[in-house]
Structure to design on (320 residues):
């Protein structure tokens, strides 16, 4: 098959997948859920700003009651010591001030991309992309139209079309989140700054530099890994409900099962790529070196995408 013909066939397959997602209300529901959780994320950050402001005011009052110099301690490091899951602070004034300053920055519209990705990459996107991939790989079988499509297009082009469609769904979800959060943060920042003295809490030290490409890279890994897993499981098993329930329980309820748990790899990458403020804290990870977590998640994503082409042959009655 020539390159233009192959591109045309893939394009037709992608259009069919997108049309089914839209007519089946899967895509509209997915985008609506993303928008709702984006609003919730902004609301969490607003609550964090109010909570952090109350805390720093309480600490200031405690300093005054005990005859301590709050302003003097602001010029000293916070001295945070972490042992396991416990954290001790020897300079509460600086620590609470820095927390308040970080919360203000996190609420600003300029922080939309990083704050959105750190929240969605590790809670909602894995579930959304897995379920969408699972649905794409099972809905045509359910309505007895997959066999005719496979006979016309072949297994390779069908799976490739679904994987490309997953990228389109991911792009739509990300754009929806960014737009809703940017608007929400602009409104919330203006409203909250009218009642709290944001200008009194400028950062006292430069923020920790984080690699924006690494943050986007984590997103792509999440799309490839969990979206690819959904497509593979759906193509292999052929049903939606049971794998969907099992995945949701495993992803959202079951604790990490050790350093070999894929969820732990992504949490390790999350801590490496993002800074977390009081608005949202990522779960602690089972200790794994970042290069190992990156290599394992990348190998897993590539393997799941490749196995999608094998899985559809297992259940495809036309497979050779």
């Amino acid at each position: 098959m020539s390159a233009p013909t192959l591109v045309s066939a893939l394009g037709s397959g992608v259009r069919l997948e997108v049309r089914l997602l839209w007519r089946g209300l899967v895509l509209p529901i997915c985008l609506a859920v993303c928008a709702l959780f984006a609003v919730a994320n902004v609301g969490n950050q607003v609550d964090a700003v109010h909570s952090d402001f109350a805390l720093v005011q309480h600490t200031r009052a405690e300093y005054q009651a005990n005859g301590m110099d709050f302003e003097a301690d602001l010029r000293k490091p916070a001295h945070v010591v972490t042992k396991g899951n416990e954290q001790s602070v020897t300079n509460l004034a600086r620590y609470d001030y820095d927390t308040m300053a970080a919360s203000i920055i996190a609420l600003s519209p300029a922080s939309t991309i990083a704050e959105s990705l750190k929240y969605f990459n590790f809670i909602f996107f894995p579930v959304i992309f897995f379920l969408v991939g699972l649905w794409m790989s099972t809905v045509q079988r359910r309505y007895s139209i997959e066999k005719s499509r496979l006979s016309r297009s072949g297994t390779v082009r069908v799976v490739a079309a679904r994987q490309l469609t997953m990228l389109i769904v991911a792009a739509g979800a990300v754009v929806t989140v960014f737009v809703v959060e940017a608007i929400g943060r602009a409104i919330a920042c203006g409203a909250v700054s009218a009642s709290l003295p944001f200008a009194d809490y400028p950062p006292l030290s430069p923020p920790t530099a984080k690699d924006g490409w690494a943050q986007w890279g984590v997103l792509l890994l999440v799309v490839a890994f969990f979206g690819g897993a959904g497509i593979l499981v759906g193509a292999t098993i052929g049903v939606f409900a049971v794998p969907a329930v099992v995945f949701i329980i495993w992803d959202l309820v079951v604790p990490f099962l050790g350093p070999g748990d894929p969820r732990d790899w992504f949490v390790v990458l999350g801590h490496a790529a993002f800074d977390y403020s009081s608005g949202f804290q990522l779960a602690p990870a089972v200790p794994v070196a970042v290069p190992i977590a990156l290599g394992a998640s990348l190998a897993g994503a590539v393997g799941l995408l490749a196995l999608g082409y094998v899985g559809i042959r297992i259940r495809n009655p036309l497979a050779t």
About this structure: The first strand starts at residue 80 and ends at 83. The chain has a mean pLDDT of 89.
